[in-house]
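Predict structure. Chain length: 128.
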Amino acid sequence: QVQLVESGGGLVQAGGSLRLSCAASGRTFSSYVMGWFRQAPGKEREFVARISRNSGNTYYSDSVKGRFTMSRDNAKNTVYLQMNSLKPEDTAVYYCAATSASYRSGPYYFRADSYDDWGQGTQVTVSS
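Prediction complete.
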């Protein structure tokens, strides 16, 4: 089990940038595949991005591809989500998540129920 704490959310104008951080506890952080999800009011939680254990592989949803970049620093037990060219439709609570499952097919990691541990979320609001 790993405890996750997100930070970095806030209010930004359309076209602006934010960087989210997710700090993890525990000494086995590098053994987890990490993901970012988001949930807008009245909508289901949706996949945003995920990163492999050694940062060698990242994958993004079509809605954020080319604008968001996910990275991790295993020495600092932290994952990041750099969000550029933000749009009002990016407004949501953003969650980081961890799963110990590895070597699964790509779509496995797009599902929220594939992740075991979640942070409390951080609000991102993009004004038009």
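Summary: The chain has no helices and eleven strands.
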